[in-house]
Amino acid sequence: MQGLTRLVDTTLDTVRLDGGSIQTNPRACDVRTLAERVIASQTEATPGRRITLSIGEEVPPRLWTDPLLAEQVLANLLSNAVKYSPDNETVFLRVRAESNRILFAVEDRGVGIPEEEQGRLFSRFFRATSAKGTRGAGIGLSVCLQLAQTLGGHLAFESRSGLGSTFTLALPVSE
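The structure corresponding to this sequence follows.
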């Protein structure tokens, strides 16, 4: 049931983004609380999984963003990392600051994305061949990219087939 609810929510977000009706509510957001809340939610959904959080000393305690939208992006990235990596592998959420931005990097040691398919990864309904046999609709990353841009940020990734992926959400520290 949780999977169906998430699919419906993501589909509604896609429609709202296409229609330009996603409203942001930016405010001061505690970086650690945001990261811990996303991890707690994923841990509840997949209790046996190890997720490690590290926050660099240079990271300011707060950023100016819509915490609900930022949490939605991070939750999807973390969910994907857990879904596409072996149960015995740790997933990492590493937070660091760089050039007036805070970078949230979600790293896994999972199936990775074939190099020849990486250019289409953020396309709606695209699923990499390495995702075969794993449930999904292929819209989550497209929504994440659009939400990151709505927040004034950027979403990037690095991946090697068979070795894993790192997805990085970069958000501005202030308006």
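Residues 4-16 have pLDDT under 50 and may be disordered.
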